[in-house]
Write a structure and sequence with these properties.
mainly alpha, Arc Repressor Mutant, subunit A, 2 domains
Length: 179
Amino acid sequence: MASDTRDRILDALERTLLDVGLTQVTLESVAAAAGVSKGGLLYHFPTKEAMLAALVRRLGTRSDEQLAEAVAGGTRVAEWYLAYPDDLGDAAEISLFRSMVAAMRSADGQHDEVQRAVVDVMRSWDDGLRAEFDDPVTAEIVRLVGDGIYLGALLGLPRPDPELHRAIIDRLLSRDDPR
């Protein structure tokens, strides 16, 4: 039951961040949106910063679960990381994408715990890429390209041509002669 309430609060926080942004997030507004009392919210999250950090950490957990599922299904870590969010197409990925938008809106540089949580989540993704490549430079290039793809999607920028996107992935993963 406590887990359900905690998730309901984090879902309400995510919706609030997506709808109106960080400046409008208050403990009261999130409690109301979650259908809990302010005291009930404070039981789970003693501060706004703790609530925001929990949202980011939940994003990391969901992301790790999706990555593990993709790898178990035969997808390379790098392929998953370089995929355009819409190409993954399932409800869990859309949920993860919305969580990422909300998490990025929470990372305003003024909340140390939130900033640490964002860094921890982003660094955990690096570990999988570094384990997949012998060359740390290639792993870092893949990370930077994947971050750029995701950032473009988060900002609503026009997506790259699908054939060009596929050629980029093939080149980065050495499946095509770059000459």
